[in-house]
Amino acid sequence: xxxxxxxxxxxxxxxxxxxxxxxxxxxxxxxxxxxxxxxxxxxxxxxxxxxxxxxxxxxxxxxxxxxxxxxxxxxxxxxxxxxxxxxxxxxxxxxxxxxxxxxxxxxxxxxxxxxxxxxxxxxxxxxxxxxxxxxxxxxxxxxxxxxxxxxxxxxxxxxxxxxxxxxxxxxxxxxxxxxxxxxxxxxxxxxxxxxxxxxxxxxxxxxxxxxxxxxxxxxxxxxxxxxxxxxxxxxxxxxxxxxxxxxxxxxxxxxxxxxxxxxxxxxxxxxxxxxxxxxxxxxxxxxxxxxxxxxxxxxxxxxxxxxxxxxxxxxxxxxxxxxxxxxxxxxxxxxxxxxxxxxxxxxxxxxxxxxxxxxxxxxxxxxxxxxxxxxxxxxxxxxxxxxxxxx
Length: 391
Prior knowledge:
Blueprint: H1 3-23, H2 28-37, H3 44-60, H4 68-77, H5 80-83, E1 133-137, H6 144-148, E2 155-156, E3 163-166, H7 176-179, E4 183-185, H8 188-197, E5 204-207, H9 214-222, E6 227-232, H10 235-238, H11 241-248, E7 252-256, H12 262-265, E8 273-279, H13 294-297, H14 300-320, E9 321-331, H15 340-349, E10 354-356, E11 364-366, E12 369-372, H16 374-377, E13 382-388
Parallel strand pairs: 5-6, 5-8, 6-7, 8-9
Antiparallel strand pairs: 1-3, 1-4, 2-3, 9-13, 10-13, 11-12, 12-13
């Protein structure tokens, strides 16, 4: 493919991505893969170059663009060489004077007031930088120092005692340590959520919104003698955990719950859990560097529904905590409504509960919890709080 043809391919893919963001369709990664499945003539270099163009354009545009062409025109404003490809053979049509281009921004304008005031505007671009690849060493079966030498370019993560950091795009899925369950792909921020739980052998732990089980696996590795129950209402996501647990040598029970009858499905755990982790569904604003088109999918109405869901899940989780136990609330978000305000509202509803210190040496103090952000902490954006039930 010529450079101009690559640019045209990127425009076509971006048209699909913008439509998918509008209509809640598949993510950009899947769209890119699907596009090239029907275009076998494109070599690996072509696919890599087109993908890079697509994600450069997505990261640049905070608002969903009117079209793939407008997104790419915006990118071309910053890149004269790219602009020169418009109008070439097999490329997009020539640029017309005055043609609308998508503006550059990190945060959608409607969402700017919702971003935590702890994050200065100068830090916003870091929310869109390319993320490194972090691994979590399975502490129940391996030592981090032993794993360091097995991955070229690996460095210890800043805070997590289990983490390795590799350059972006490092491939590990066929590495023997990954195949044997000695390491898992997991951002350091997610590892710190498990660390904030402070799990211990003998604990009864519920991971209420377990999804594919990444944090359940981290908890099991940190405390192999704990009894861990991983639950979710999404059968497809939860079904991925048992094979991962088998590979890691972790004993984790899974349980599919029905909305809105979660408490009925957890009656045998009511008031008995030492730790309940509520890693709630959220805007994903803390993971924009991995899923930058997430900005195009979020709306005020969707955010409002997510905040209501988080509140309901916190109340469900609280019913499972034993006297003297702890509820750990986490969201991969940098928005006040989902973090600091959500924890404050919970403590207002349950006045006997107290905020506890979060045992992680990272992030900024943020109300009842701590806020981690890419620019300061090198992790995805997370809010985490420990909420203790009195004895």
